[in-house]
Amino acid sequence: MKNIAIRKNTQAILDQYDLNALKKYGQNFLVDANIIHKIAQQANITKETCVIEIGPGIGALTEELAHQAKHVIAFEIDERMKNVLDHELECHNVEVILQDFMKVNLEEVVSTIEEEDVCVVTNLPYYITTDIIKKVLTTPTRINRMVALIQKEVALKLTGEEKSPLSNMIDYVGDIKYCMTVGKSVFIPAPHVDSAVIRIYKERNMDPVLIEVLEAAFKQKRKTMNNNMKALFRNETAQVLAACNINPTKRAQELNIDDFMKLVEERRKRL
Ligand code: SAM
User: Fold this and answer.
1) Ligand 1 probe mutation, 23, 39, 75, 76, most atoms within 8 A of CB
2) For the domain that residue 240 is a member of, what is the CATH number?
């Protein structure tokens, strides 16, 4: 291994290819081999695993994933990285695809992967963290776990008491663990805030009716369930909420996944 993640090696690559970190793509490059090792460890990768990485950058994490896995598919939006990865990554089991991950047909990609065991491991660009997690969780695939380095504040929200659409989705598909905090100093350039590693286990695919119910319930966060649910249940809203034993003056963030599943049942009866 080249150890791209060592600070002086990363700096040398950035200098050699005349690369400046682009804020619009959330580029903060990891320069701590120990943290990279710990991230990969959380994913329980074996020589039978295919890892999907989102945003390889100059390949610091990719190199470790390639060392542990059978196969790595890495999606990168920044065209400048292709040349760097082609020359610096000395791994034959990495496939770099230059594409915006949000535009990738994930279902199709996963269906063509030969390995049975498929997971996602990523140091996520912060500007698009929740959208990417949502995409991985709501696309029906056999991806069964995701390890991600994200903003600490977002990690605390996802694992905390107050619920969001995404944390309810996680409760439905499986569970989440806050693995560790990562300080600012292990990145070039250093971000303004601390980061954290999370691991999500996905035991089942998302229910599309639950997505619809969550979107309606959280549409206007300050409005009550009685207000937001009218979009789905019209003049039956009061009756539906009563049948589900949900106080109509509560807000969506005060409810839990069991409440939402009762609403899903009511919605299904009316479809
Ligand atoms: N994996 C590298 C590391 O750990 O040092 C880089 C991580 S950096 C925080 C995020 C990476 O995601 C950048 O390489 C950036 O160009 C890439 N990226 C940003 N938006 C993306 C998108 N929509 N699809 C794919 N890659 C994206």
Assistant:
1) 76
2) 1.10.8.100
Tell me, what's the ipTM? Answer: 0.99
Stated length of the chain? 271
Q: HSE of 184 in the Cβ direction (CA atoms, 13 Å)?
A: 6
- Could you read off the pLDDT of 173-217 as tens digits, one per residue? 999 999 999 999 999 999 999 999 999 999 999 999 999 999 999
CA distance 60 to 72: 13
Annotated binding site for S-adenosyl-L-methionine: which residue ranges?
28, 30, 55, 76, 100, 123
Q: Is the pTM of this model over 0.95?
A: yes
Measuring from each residue's beta carbon to the nearest atom of ligand 1, which residues come in under 6 Å? 25-30, 54-57, 60-61, 75-78, 100-102, 123, 125, 128
Q: Residue range 133-160: average pLDDT?
A: 97
Q: Is residue 170 domain-resident?
A: yes
Residue 2 has pLDDT above 90, yes or no: no
pLDDT in tens, 44-57: 999 999 999 999 99
Q: Is residue 248 part of a domain?
A: yes
- Domain final position from 202, 230, 248: 202
| Per-residue confidence (pLDDT) for residue 70, from 0 to 100 | 98
Q: Which atom of ligand 1 is nearest to the CA of 75?
A: 25
User: CA 256 from chain center: how many Å?
Assistant: 21
Handedness of CA 77, 78, 82, 84 (dihedral sign): negative
Q: Are 45 and 169 in a shared domain?
A: yes
